[in-house]
Amino acid sequence: MFDAQDKTATCPVHAPSDHPAIPKAKTGVLIANLGTPDHYSYWPMRRYLNEFLSDRRVIDYSPWLWQPLLQLVILSKRPFTSGEAYKSIWNEDKGESPLMTITRDQTEKLAKVLQDKHGDEIVVDFCMRYGNPSTKSKVRKMTEAGCTRILFFPLYPHYAGATSATANDQFFRALMEETWQPSARTVEPYFENPTYIEALAQSVEKAYAEAEEKPEILVVSYHGMPQRYLKQGDPYHCQCQKTTRLLKERLGWDDTQITTTFQSVFGPEEWLRPYTVEHVAKLAEEGKKRIAVMAPAFSADCIETLEEINEEIKESFEEAGGEEFLYIPCLNDDDAHIKALSEIIETNLQGWVG
């Protein structure tokens, strides 16, 4: 998104002639998303899954118990099945996952909005918590470009230890390795931001207007987490419920037209319920022939939406007797989404830029 080799770097005033040139001070905006494997073949998938599933924020079991199971059993099989899932959605033209393509597009649009207003005072880039481009590499690139301040923005509307917190952890670890450490801020969750809710509502209205027949109910599916995390104080479940309520109120609907579910269950524990894959089947069994599904917790379409929702969950609905399944895409680089994200960034930059 920007050139790390700043051509305007100069020697400080009154410094000796052999003093290293220092770039003009800038403010960096670093967008962060979950991550993606470099390819869907076995070894790139294994490296990506190993990094992801070794994160104690994601799987908090004792490493003495978890790592042997992960290394000897799970990572000998799962890269094949996950690789097939990624292959089914892979952007072959660009040689990357849709998440990578969409995050880059979002970043380029945000950079234009911010740089049109602030000029070269702002540099905008993106990183991934797992895989490439790494958080560490992008923090280093920003400091080399002269960023004395960095606003770190995990693109998760809802806070969860396994998403927002681990992204922030990685950012802080990267800062620890910088000789000249920039000032830093992180963006708080934006699950109730009015412009974000408006963008969600517009995406629903557009999808319903274009549908041949109006869906009977909207299933708002969020990524799941173990029930235990909720009881330990993670606010994710409550924030998801509030997003659904605010969306319902903005659309002017009642409770019969919208419902909240959770997807992507992993492991033997009880997770947040109801499970999306089971609930859509139940809706079909109850006589609902047409449903829509959206995933507001994801800022960009990815494996959990393009493959899990639009293939596995759709199949569950249709096998139970459902007929019309409408998937409403994530906000991605839609203009209303970029407006919401840029407004959130501007709010968090107050006091740093004019």
Topology readout:
Blueprint (H helix, E strand, L loop, with lengths): L25 E11 L5 H12 L9 H27 L8 H21 L3 E10 L3 H10 L2 E8 L6 H16 L6 E4 L7 H17 L6 E7 L3 H5 L4 H16 L6 E6 L12 H10 L4 E5 L8 H17 L4 E4 L7 H14 L6
Parallel strand pairs: 1-2, 1-3, 3-4, 5-6, 5-7, 7-8
Helix pairs in contact: 1-2, 3-11, 4-5, 6-8, 6-11, 9-10
| Molecular shape | globular
- Structurally, the number of domains stands at 2
Got a strand count? 8
* Whole-angstrom Rg: 22 Å
- The CATH topology of the largest domain turns out to be Rossmann fold
Oligomer: single chain
Number of helices: 11
Query: Unreliable segments (pLDDT under 50, ≥5 consecutive)?
Result: none
Mean pLDDT: 94
Q: CATH top level of the largest domain?
A: Alpha Beta
User: Beta-strand percentage?
Assistant: 15-25%
Q: Which strand order does the major sheet show?
A: 2-1-3-4
* Sheet/helix structural class: alpha/beta
Q: Estimate percent helicity.
A: 40-55%
Give the biggest sheet: 4 strands, parallel
> First CA to last CA: what distance?
21 Å
Q: What is the architecture of the largest domain at the second tier of CATH? A: 3-Layer(aba) Sandwich
Q: Give, in order, the helices and strands.
A: EHHHEHEHEHEHHEHEHEH
